[in-house]
């Protein structure tokens, strides 16, 4: 008696994708989720500067939201230095990392309540 040899589950497994296909699908998904940069007017810029100066002067924690390549990113920490010449903010994050933020990326600044 001869027995038919079947591939079992193998024939029902999903199709194999090449790495190029996977990369292209991730890029398409990423492009779909991107957001246009919000317009920040002069009064908002003044407000951001005031909050940054207060946070620096009083060593108060702050939340800075930036727009970077279509996505929002949030930083929480304390302002170490405001560099007016280079238009950068030097922020010490909660985990101790020093981060440099370009002022033209900033779309939101909030002072955190002290506990």
What is shown here, in short?
This protein has helices spanning 19-33, 42-58, and strands at residues 61-68, 71-83, 88-93, 98-102, 106-111. It is of the alpha+beta class and 115 residues long. It has a five-stranded antiparallel sheet with strand order 4-3-2-1-5, covered by helices on one side.
Which secondary structure elements does this structure contain, and how are they paired or packed?
Layout: H1 19-33, H2 42-58, E1 61-68, E2 71-83, E3 88-93, E4 98-102, E5 106-111
Antiparallel strand pairs: 1-2, 1-5, 2-3, 3-4
Protein name: YolD-like family protein
InterPro entries: YolD (IPR014962)
Pfam families: YolD
Percentage of helical residues?
25-40%
Number of helices: 2
β-sheet strand percentage: 25-35%
State the distance separating the first and last CA atoms.
Answer: 82 Å
CATH topology of the domain at 42-111: SH3 type barrels
Q: What's the mean pLDDT score?
A: 85
The number of E-state strands comes to 5
Outline the low-pLDDT stretches. none
Whole-number radius of gyration?
Answer: 24 Å
Give the strand line-up of the largest sheet. 4-3-2-1-5
Shape: elongated
Helix/strand order, N-terminal first: HHEEEEE
Query: Which CATH architecture of the domain at 42-111 would you pick?
Result: Roll
What does the main sheet amount to?
5 strands, antiparallel
Q: Which structural class is indicated by helix and strand composition?
A: alpha+beta
Can you tell me the CATH class of the domain at 42-111? Mainly Beta
């Amino acid at each position: 008696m001869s027995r038919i040899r079947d591939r079992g589950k193998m024939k029902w497994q999903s199709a194999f994708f090449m790495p190029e296909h996977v990369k292209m699908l991730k890029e398409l998904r990423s492009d779909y989720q991107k957001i246009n940069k919000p317009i920040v007017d002069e009064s908002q810029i003044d407000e951001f500067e005031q909050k940054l100066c207060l946070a620096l002067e009083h060593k108060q924690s702050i939340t800075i939201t930036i727009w970077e390549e279509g996505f929002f990113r949030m930083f929480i920490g304390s302002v170490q230095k405001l560099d007016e010449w280079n238009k950068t903010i030097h922020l010490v994050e909660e985990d101790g990392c020093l981060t440099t933020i370009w002022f033209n990326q900033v779309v939101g600044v909030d002072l955190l309540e002290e506990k």
